[in-house]
């Protein structure tokens, strides 16, 4: 007796860690939000551009081209000519490559926007994914800070267009040069102190979380948290710590007051710091002239995120309304977009400096914010009208297909039932599960008469909860009407309009 043949093992369906499947509702909400943002960018004169998902790894700027396996943080593979390629880590480095490669063909200043997926080969966690969408806007070839001021105002207009109320958001602006000036003033400028400066940056970035006293500890010897874990500090002395704290707390009642406070902190110890303060002053003047100094755009020295990457002004869109975090604490929602001036990125590919500034929106995070505010735009697609299949002969199927074509030509979302048509009740169940507003029914008798039955599924569902006897059922028959085939489209449009009116009236 031969051995029993083993059944082949079924392939297990499993989603890769750090990735998600997206539903129709999520896709439509994202597209609606991106459409609103795009309108703002277009209004400002920006044009779309698209770069591929893959770039040569050295072009991303984060890794050396001669690494044995440059896939730390990025997803990488080798091309057929043994060159390393990586899925893009952000949208800025690919844009810098695009500008450099097409420099002789593009019009400067080059004003572009693009939305797209980026990929991080990092350990996933709650709310932390390996694939997510960004929406960026950039200006290349404009050295003046008016380009930075415009970015800040465009970010403010974007928040407003999405329905976020004034007072619920602020665009905070700082300048890398000012902080460099503070670093020089306290003796940690230059390449020899790069690690110390990074520790100082990280300490300042914890201001919202730990407060001035916590930052003071991180600037000094270090800080021990509630669990007893110790974080080593930057090791600054007390006068240096006081100067850094004075810098991050320099925000005044308005831009002019903040500029004055920064001038006192930096003093005359750094020409670079003075240059940064002057740039912030110009931005404040431009913002005020355009009327955005009403709380929408604010000079704020506490913005340090990404300062090691940027070369001048930096800005961040922060949402100010309260949410409950995973620990049950009430906190402000926080940042949903950020950017700044990165004059060195394009010039990596060229023998000349190319000034550039831009910002990036975290699409998923912004969507979460809009959902918290009830501003997500709950406007799902109209579920399709379903044309039922009563008879399966080719003549009948041709009639059904003609109905579908007529309704689609009128712009009405429609589908012909594609499942097993034997059980008519199953077809109506399918339409109900789809949320279909109307079912189209034509049997052999209706076809002979040249008529078609139109069943108002929304009204029928409402009436079914009120019907208690046969007489009431017969009285409710207007939920299903018979019309000549020639009147099909007009009657469907009439019913859909009535349903829409009912929704608006909350019925």
TrEMBL record:
Reactions catalysed according to its record: tRNA(His) + L-histidine + ATP = L-histidyl-tRNA(His) + AMP + diphosphate + H(+)
Similarity annotation: Belongs to the class-II aminoacyl-tRNA synthetase family.
Major place of residence: cytoplasm
Organism: Hoeflea poritis
Quaternary state and interactors: Homodimer.
Domain Aminoacyl-transfer RNA synthetases class-II family profile: from-to ranges: 1-384
InterPro entries from the UniProt entry: aa-tRNA-synth_II (IPR006195), aa-tRNA-synth_II/BPL/LPL (IPR045864), Anticodon-bd (IPR004154), Anticodon-bd_dom_sf (IPR036621), His-tRNA-ligase (IPR015807), HisRS-like_core (IPR041715), HisRS/HisZ (IPR004516), HisRS_anticodon (IPR033656)
Localization: Cytoplasm
EC number(s) reported in the record: 6.1.1.21
NCBIfam families, A to Z: hisS (TIGR00442)
Keyword Nucleus tagged: no
Gene3D superfamilies registered for this protein in UniProt: Anticodon-binding domain (3.40.50.800), Bira Bifunctional Protein, Domain 2 (3.30.930.10)
Superkingdom of source: Bacteria
Pfam families with a match to the protein in the record: HGTP_anticodon (PF03129), tRNA-synt_His (PF13393)
Record key words, sorted: Aminoacyl-tRNA synthetase, ATP-binding, Cytoplasm, Ligase, Nucleotide-binding, Protein biosynthesis
Signal sequence interval, chain numbering: none
Enzyme class label: ligase
Protein name, entry field: Histidine--tRNA ligase
A GO term for molecular function: histidine-tRNA ligase activity
Residue stretches in coiled coil: none
UniProt gene name: hisS
């Amino acid at each position: 007796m031969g051995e029993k043949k083993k059944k082949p093992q079924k392939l297990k369906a499993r989603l890769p860690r750090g990735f998600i499947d997206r539903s129709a509702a999520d896709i439509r909400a994202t597209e609606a939000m991106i459409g609103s943002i795009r309108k703002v960018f277009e209004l400002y004169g920006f044009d779309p551009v698209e770069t591929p998902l893959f770039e040569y790894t050295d072009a991303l700027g984060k890794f050396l081209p001669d690494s044995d396996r440059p896939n730390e943080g990025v997803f990488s593979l080798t091309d057929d000519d043994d060159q390393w390629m990586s899925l893009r880590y952000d949208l800025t480095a690919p844009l810098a490559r695009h500008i450099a490669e097409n420099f002789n063909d593009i019009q400067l200043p080059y004003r572009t926007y693009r939305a797209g997926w980026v990929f991080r080969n990092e350990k996933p966690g709650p709310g932390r994914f390996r694939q997510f969408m960004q929406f960026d806007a950039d200006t290349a070839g404009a050295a003046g800070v008016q380009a930075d001021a415009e970015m800040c105002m465009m970010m403010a207009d974007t928040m407003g267009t999405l329905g976020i109320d004034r007072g619920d958001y602020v665009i905070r602006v700082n300048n890398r040069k000012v902080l460099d000036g503070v670093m020089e003033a306290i003796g940690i400028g230059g390449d020899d102190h790069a690690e110390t400066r990074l520790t100082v940056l990280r300490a300042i970035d914890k201001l919202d979380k730990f407060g001035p006293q916590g930052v003071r500890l991180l600037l000094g010897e270090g800080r021990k948290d509630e669990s007893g874990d110790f974080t080593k500090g930057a090791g600054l002395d007390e006068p240096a710590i006081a100067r850094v704290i004075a810098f991050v707390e320099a925000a005044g009642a308005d831009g002019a007051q903040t500029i004055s406070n920064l001038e006192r902190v930096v003093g005359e110890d750094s020409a670079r710091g003075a240059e940064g303060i002057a740039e912030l002053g110009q931005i404040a003047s431009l913002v005020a002239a355009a009327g955005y100094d009403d709380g929408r755009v604010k000079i704020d020295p506490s913005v340090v995120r990404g300062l090691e990457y940027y070369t001048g002004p930096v800005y961040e869109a922060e949402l100010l309304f309260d949410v409950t975090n995973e620990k049950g604490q009430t906190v402000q929602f926080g940042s949903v977009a950020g950017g700044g001036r990165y004059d060195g990125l394009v010039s990596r590919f060229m023998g000349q400096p190319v000034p550039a500034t831009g910002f990036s929106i975290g699409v998923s995070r912004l969507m979460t914010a809009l959902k918290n505010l009830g501003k997500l735009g709950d406007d799902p697609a109209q579920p399709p009208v379903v044309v039922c299949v009563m008879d399966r002969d080719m003549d009948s199927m041709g009639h059904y297909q003609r109905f579908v074509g007529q309704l689609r030509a009128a712009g009405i979302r429609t589908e012909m039932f594609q499942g097993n048509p034997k059980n008519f009740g199953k077809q109506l169940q399918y339409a109900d599960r789809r949320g279909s507003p109307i079912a189209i029914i034509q049997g052999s008798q209706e076809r002979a008469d040249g008529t078609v039955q139109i069943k108002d599924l929304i009204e029928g569902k409402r009436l079914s909860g009120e019907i208690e006897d046969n007489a009431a059922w017969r009285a409710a028959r207007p939920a299903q009407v018979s019309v000549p085939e020639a009147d099909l489209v007009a009657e469907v449009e009439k019913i859909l309009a009535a349903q829409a009116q009912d929704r608006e009236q909350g019925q």
